[in-house]
Amino acid sequence: MNSFEKYEKMLSLEPYKDRSEMPVFPMMVATYGALGGVSQKEICSDPDKWILAIENTIAKIGKPDVSMAMCPLDTTFVMGLPVRLPGRDLGDNDLYQFVESPYFDDTSEYDKIMGMSWEYWYGGYLMSIQNPPFTNPQQIGERYGILGANLGKTIGYLISKGIVPCFESATGPIFDTLSMIRGMADFTYDLCDEPEKIVAIMEKYQPIEDEKTIGMMKATGGRKLGIFAMRSSATFISPTMFEELVWPTLKASIIRYHQAGLVSVLHADANWLPMVKYFTELPKGCLHLELDGDTDIEQAYDTLRGWQSIRGDVPATMLAYGTPDEVAAYSEKLVQMGMKGGFMLSSGCEVPLNAKLENVKAMMDVMK
């Protein structure tokens, strides 16, 4: 099987005949630079340098079946937070840093969002956090155009190498985006004090944002949509909050994407174990769940096996500080678990910047 056939086999949820059918994905963005001998300053400023870093890394570890396709330059833009960049605010080989601090002071801002629309409000916010700040809304449109061109170039490169792009585009739900903009502590208070304001914004504007996303995916021919719901886990909110405040909108979004022919690739950082059961309420095979190690992957796999696909979760600490034998043993345990189908061997979130080359290669070599 080639990598594209392996990916489709995973989505089919059918048992694997042997490990050669299971895809492997060491998730890397900044780490391509570290392993590929290209500085963080270069990969965060020049998409072509990032592609060079991918090329150099593949030559050392072997060809993965799946790869991230959004370069660091655009990753740091779409996160929607102020950012410190290597070579500008940090050392040339330091990892970029997001800066989270409250953007507004009280819940009256939610009233403002309801009155002026999410798109208009969020566009103004994005303009204000650029360095230097944008002064014309047209600049935001132009920046998204650059992002699309860069993404298309990387996707083209990956496909030419026989590698599946992890997703062709990505989105952040309004709930999670607001959490980062407001700041975790203040947003948590808001969820307790005035949750109806946040829910009203989600109910009114999330469907509109979803339709825009679907239109963009159809225009570009993409099928896999990354969803970065990074503040909806049990690490940040209670399971009750998830069920009452988050799940109705998130479920509706994923179903909406499914009906449009898209596969939702949910990037599930932190502990999602109390939430995993809800994904059985979704249409079969519409979701691919990415776990980072804080969720018990065996329990999650048992809950979703035969209904949704899942990937993970070789720990970042093991890739950085462990031995190749330890990485191989952990990876082998995951492979044995996942042979029942619907599983991709992967790192737990991103391979860390200080990962040992021999450890990443050990994870790759388990599939031989």
Which percent bin holds the helix content?
Answer: 40-55%
**Spatial gap, N to C terminus:** 13 Å
Task: Provide the CATH topology.
Answer: TIM Barrel
Please state the average pLDDT score.
97
Q: Pick out the low-confidence regions.
A: none
Write down the CATH class. Answer: Alpha Beta
What is the overall number of helices? Answer: 17
Give the number of DSSP strands: 11
Regarding quaternary structure, how should these chains be classified?
single chain
| Biggest sheet layout | 7 strands, parallel
> How are the strands of the biggest sheet laid out side by side?
1-11-10-9-8-7-6
Give Rg in angstroms.
Answer: 20 Å
Shape: globular
**What is the string of SSEs from the N terminus onward?**
HEHHHEHEEHHHEEHHHEHEHEHEHHEH
Blueprint (SSEs and pairs):
Elements: H1 3-12, E1 24-25, H2 31-36, H3 40-43, H4 47-61, E2 66-67, H5 72-78, E3 83-84, E4 97-98, H6 108-116, H7 118-129, H8 137-160, E5 164-165, E6 169-171, H9 174-182, H10 184-193, H11 195-220, E7 224-227, H12 239-259, E8 263-268, H13 273-276, E9 287-291, H14 297-304, E10 309-314, H15 316-321, H16 324-338, E11 343-347, H17 357-365
Helix pairs in contact: 6-7, 6-11, 9-10, 11-12, 16-17
